[in-house]
Amino acid sequence: MVKSYSFEAEKTERADKLICGKIPELSRSYVQKLIEEGQITVNGKMIKANYKTKAGDRIDVVVPDPKTISLEPQKIDLDIVYEDDCLLVINKPRNMVVHPAAGNYDNTLVNAILYHCKGKLSGINGEIRPGIVHRLDKDTTGLLVAAKDDETHKALSEQLKHRTLFREYYALVHGNIKEDSFVIDAPIGRDDKDRKKMAVKKSGNAREAITNVLVIERFLKYTLVSCRLKTGRTHQIRVHMKYKNHPVVGDKVYGIKDEFNLEGQLLHAKTIGFIHPKTKEYMEFSAPLPQDFSKVLDLLRKRDL
Fold this sequence. Notes:
By secondary structure, this protein is an alpha+beta fold. The chain folds into three domains: 3-63, Structural Genomics Hypothetical 15.5 Kd Protein In mrcA-pckA Intergenic Region, Chain A (Roll), CATH 3.10.290.10; 80-162, Pseudouridine synthase; 167-270 and 292-303, Pseudouridine synthase. 19% of the residues lie in helices and 29% in strands. The strands form four sheets. Strands 7, 8, 9, 10, 11, 14, 15, 16 and 17 form a nine-stranded mixed β-sheet that branches. Strands 1-6-3-4 form a four-stranded antiparallel β-sheet. Helix 1 (15-22) crosses helix 2 (28-36).
């Protein structure tokens, strides 16, 4: 059933923030989506998400019926690290796409969890991304959390937005890094020359991006690092490590030629931690490095003795 809301702004405030305050069951990302679709108007006119209201502005919000999920559930083996009635934590393998996109509507993680959960997934992110709170690149392995209902999805999304959802990645990168730890604070936006890629930029469509890097192990020509995300931009770790002249080994988009003949980048979402939306307890999960990642490390340890 379509829902409609109308109210007046009481002060100068970003429209998306104001609407979330008035309609708390809507996440900020979903409000921004409604704005993009023209479902939210101010004084009868369409706006942008960063529009600032003035006292007395009339705001009209239309929340359409959630679209029926039409994707085909597929019986695909999943490495489920944890599951309850609200959510599940999955260890994603290499070469698996998280959610369908143009030209790739089958054999995704979404197809698999639709089958596993018998269709019981949140619908906040629309019909092609049910349950997906955050994503991993196709060739990135490791942990992600999926929501089974909208309330859980919204709570996890809020933790993601407020940077309290803990995410640690392990990456093998080119070069021997001398510092023990450092912070990469460099905004990321769409590459001006190649729209399929992201890049560190100082202006335009760039958004704040912060990665905390800690050296775990050094080799002659490579370094194993831990990357902890403070923000979550597209390809953030891969772009940031390239920016520091230490691209991720095996990265076919941002990397350089390597000697290991890999199928994808050695980037693994090793640890994830969050406050459970229902129990309010902090939960943390870790996944071991995949076999191809471990084999390269073993080779380097033997060779660099």
